[in-house]
Amino acid sequence: MRKHKTPKSRGKLPEKRGGRAKNLQDADEGDPAESKASPPRITWSQTRTERLVEWLEDHVEDRQRLFSDSAQDAREENRRRRTAKNVKATLYSKIAEDIFSVDEDVKFRDDLRAHGVKRYAKAIENRVAR
Predict the structure, then answer these.
(1) Per residue in 102-115, pLDDT tens?
(2) Does 106 fall in a domain?
């Protein structure tokens, strides 16, 4: 006759989050989801939009890179073409820094400092593409 082995108790398992159980060791540490929390929802107020337009007006070369300067425009203006090879993401981050680092809402400034500009770059890209 076979005896069934009872599994050793490993203590109470933590609740699952996002389909995975957290380690017991992680239970004492801060919630990793908090560090990856999404940024505050951005509503494009007139002030933010004006700051974006002002930035684009003040940075002509970057604006040309962002909107893929055409060869025809460059010829007509008797200058070299400014191409947008892999610089758009950098430009969106630069714009996000300029706009949200001085935002009137403190939660955006704090979130920008805590998590960096990359999370705001997509909002800039979406706004510019409209």
Answers:
(1) 999 999 999 999 99
(2) yes
Tokens of 7: 């599994």
Q: In the structure encoding, which two tokens stand for residue 61, read together? A: 């070369």
Distance, in Å, from the CA atom of 71 to the CA atom of 79, rounded to the nearest integer, reads: 9
* Pairing between β-strand 16-17 and β-strand 20-21 as defined by DSSP bridges: antiparallel
Q: Do the domain assignments include residue 27?
A: no
Mean pLDDT throughout 42-56?
94
Rounded to 5 degrees, φ, ψ at 13 are: -80, 140
- Asked if 104 contacts 47 with a C-beta cutoff of 8 angstroms, the reply is yes
Query: What is the reported pTM?
Result: 0.61
Position 4 in a domain: no
Report angle CA 30, 104, 130 to the nearest 5 degrees.
Answer: 90
Bridge partners, residue 16, by sequence: 21
